[in-house]
Amino acid sequence: MENIINRHRNLTILAAVLFAQILGLAVQVKRGTDQGTSRLIRVWAVSVITPIEKGVGHTSRWFADTWNNYLYLRGVRAQNRELREEIEHMRLEKVRMSEDAGQARRLQSLLGFREEFISQTMPAQVISTTGSEFSRGVFIDKGSRDGIKADMPVITPDGIVGKVFRVYPTSSLVLEINDSSSGAGVILEKSRLQGILKGSPTGQTFVANIMADEKIEPGERILTSGGDRVYPKGMAVGTVSRVNPAGTFLNVEVKPSAQLNRLEEVLVITRIVEKAPEVNEQSAPVRAIDILAQRLPSVPPPKPAPENKAPATAQPKPAATTSKPNAEAAPPAAVPRETAGQLSTEAKRAPSAEKNAASAKALGEAAKPETPVKETPR
């Protein structure tokens, strides 16, 4: 290497001087761009380094795509198979649950159960609090002039807040669920245990009247039961935070779903409508035999045969009798009504006109009276 430098020493020095001169010019010369002026050395450096960076970026992305799309997806087929089986299981579970739901609706309709639906609400603004450590309540800007009445439930999108305690013309006092004098009927979502939600002077909420032998897990949701006839059934109340045994009953502490200490806007339920559950008959499965019965042609029922009415026959007239001279004519013998009725009924039941005529002739002969003849002496 030293021999080459010594042999071309002059050219090496000249090249170094030219490179230093060009480098110095590049540092001093500036080029105008859209964002302003930039030194020529920076433009050259960027032009040289950009293709290298692009090549490195493309190479790294190619390796990353190869790893993610091919090598890393070796177990995707088995995972896909498991997911398909899980989807099929969920579909079967959905069908079973829909059948159970339909059966429950039908049973509710048969037993006369009624569900409560929130029909009308009124938004209200929280304007102040009670300002006491022993009572938990807030004042809202809606009163009797707006249709607010006592014991109307007050809720938020997160859960229940309380109920209207006192009503004034332009405002109302809402008693919160963590007040010591409040109460609400609740039910635990999983265990289906019912109790009474109460408050304490310190502002905590708990569920009372649950036996100590029941098993309750923290984190279980608590909903309104609707038994207090104030809050609609199924609204969120809170979750179980801690369970403490207290003699015969359990002390179930509850964390409210609504932020009771940060209330700004609330909803007052002004109307609750009770409706019977609707049973959707179309949701019931259709049997194949019913479809075939609709598609196959039906045979019309036979028409009833007309009744054969016998023609009415004229009643025979009794033959007129003549008497000989100097003979007394006897009155015709009268035919009993029962005998005449039986004969007329038999005449109507005769199948043909000839039999009717024959019976009429026989009746006429039977009705002829026998006339006695008196002998006159000579």
Q: What is the fold's blueprint, element by element?
A:
Elements: H1 2-7, H2 9-28, E1 30-33, E2 36-39, H3 40-71, H4 76-111, E3 115-129, E4 137-140, E5 153-155, E6 160-167, E7 172-176, E8 184-188, E9 194-199, E10 205-208, E11 221-224, E12 236-246, E13 249-256, E14 265-275, H5 288-295, H6 337-348, H7 353-366
Antiparallel strand pairs: 1-2, 3-4, 3-14, 4-7, 5-6, 5-14, 6-7, 8-9, 8-11, 9-10, 10-13, 11-12, 12-13
Can you put this structure into words, describing what you see?
- With 378 residues, the protein is of the alpha+beta class.
- Among the domains are: 2-66, no CATH class; 119-274, Rod shape-determining protein MreC, domain 1 (Thrombin, subunit H), CATH 2.40.10.
- Helix content is 34%, strand content 24%.
- It is built from seven helices and 14 strands.
- A six-stranded antiparallel beta barrel has the order 3-4-7-6-5-14. Strands 8-9-10-13-12-11 form a six-stranded antiparallel barrel. It has a two-stranded antiparallel sheet with strand order 1-2.
- A hairpin with a 5-residue loop joins β9 (194-199) and β10 (205-208).
- The model is unreliable at 310-316, 318-341 and 366-378 (pLDDT under 50).
